[in-house]
Protein: Transcriptional regulator, XRE family
Organism: Actinosynnema mirum
Amino acid sequence: MLVATLSDGSEPMEANGRRATSTRRACPSCGALIAADNSDRLCHRCRRNARADIYGPPALTEEFWDHPVLASAFAARDMGAVLAAYRHHPQHVSRITQDRMATWLGISQAQLSRYETGENPIDRIERLRHFARALSIPGDRLWFDRVGIPSQAAPERGAPPDVLVAAWDASSIARSVEETARSDLAISRRAALTGAAAVTMGPTLVEPLQRWLHPLQPLTRWSSSAAISEEELAALQHVADGLRGWGGRGGYGLARKAVLGQLEELAERLTRAPAGPTTERAFFIGAELSKVAASMSWDAGMHDAAQRYYVLGVRMAKAGHNDAFAALCLAAMARQMFDLGRPEDGLDLVQLAQYGTRRKATPTLQALLLTREAWAYAQLGRVKEFHRAVGQAQDSFAQREHGSEPWWLQSFDEAELEGVIGARLRDLAAHDPSQALLAEKHILRALELRDPARVRNRAFDVIGLARTKMAAGDPEAACGLIQQVLPTAVGLASGRVVRKLQDFAKEAERHRELPLVRDTREAIRGVRTA
């Protein structure tokens, strides 16, 4: 007869001292019968061996990650689904509760619940990376960081083309823009957001863009179609001017579709247009529209699409013989890298833009690029280099002449200069707290100078000032500023504004015992939900 054993290895006994068979529960790990006084799923020995797993994720085999439930979550590019699939995986020795996983990830159980249900999409690259590191997810499963990870799958049907590898001639540039815009118009918003963080980084991003420094292949008569007329060009510019005004409103809805639709039509026309001055000017209009599409995509959290259109903006500007505007697109890409926690990549892009315009950059463009350089130094904690770059930016800005700058640099005025310097000083204060007071001074100056019509920029200023006061240890004043800006944030419906508010809420968590802080964080949660 098979004699069962207890969790300590002994045989079970009846009350009269005789050995007895038992129908008690078996340990799912080792198969031993679980002692009657043990209410856990595991026997005492396996529970003791699994104790380390309570304080951190268990060691897992490669087969764990191949399970169909996890495979479908990876295919959907949804970290929330990955977290849920990980918790409910049948190979775990002991149950992974939300409380337990939340402790591993350094978040609250409520946050984890919202991530798993999809209420809060995870679109910040640094958070995606943190979760992947905490759970030891293999690098070849990560869809959001393509550096050094070769794709094993064929390109998805209908997926946008890889704009970084396209040839640098006018016809190829136009065709790439047309195919990308058409593909993105066909992708649903949900599908786009699931791939929102799949940006290219490191040398894979920077090295292909170095081709921008070389002369473009000559514009030849690749088509026998009629040239773009002055009337056609004026109509294109009129439409672009109207669509550009939507770029600062945020969102991903009809406005973005209108920009992409116009960009597709323009690119299709350019694939049939012969070389000529009006064709070059039409390429520049395409660069404008590409940059607007990138800004809208970024605002909606669609970082991969934003990066594509910034790259296309660089290419279209190059074909339009406007290297300065191409540098502006590179500067915008750098800002995106800073937002994603990649200051080294951002610095590489800025320096690429500076080198390419070293002989022709206007004082305002020089100042703008220098503030982007300072941005990288602030995130890296390089205080000396930061102040050197800021001083050079201020000197360059002081040399500008009224009426000599292109219209597309007019938004970089004194208010913007002060606001950027103040916000970057706040970043630097994380490494050197003495910078916080100086940050407040510059942000207040920006608010004093800011045009009231620049509503979103003013919202950024106020949130930046609140975050500065929070860093300086004044949570009441910080929350008062946030309460002032919340109605504006609701009206803007801007993803970037909401993300800045979420950054504030995270920084305010250390003061969560204060009623005003709790109320403000709850109000921010309401804005996000709205």
Summary: The chain has 25 helices and no strands. The radius of gyration is 28 Å. Residues 44-141 form a domain with the 434 Repressor (Amino-terminal Domain) fold (CATH 1.10.260).
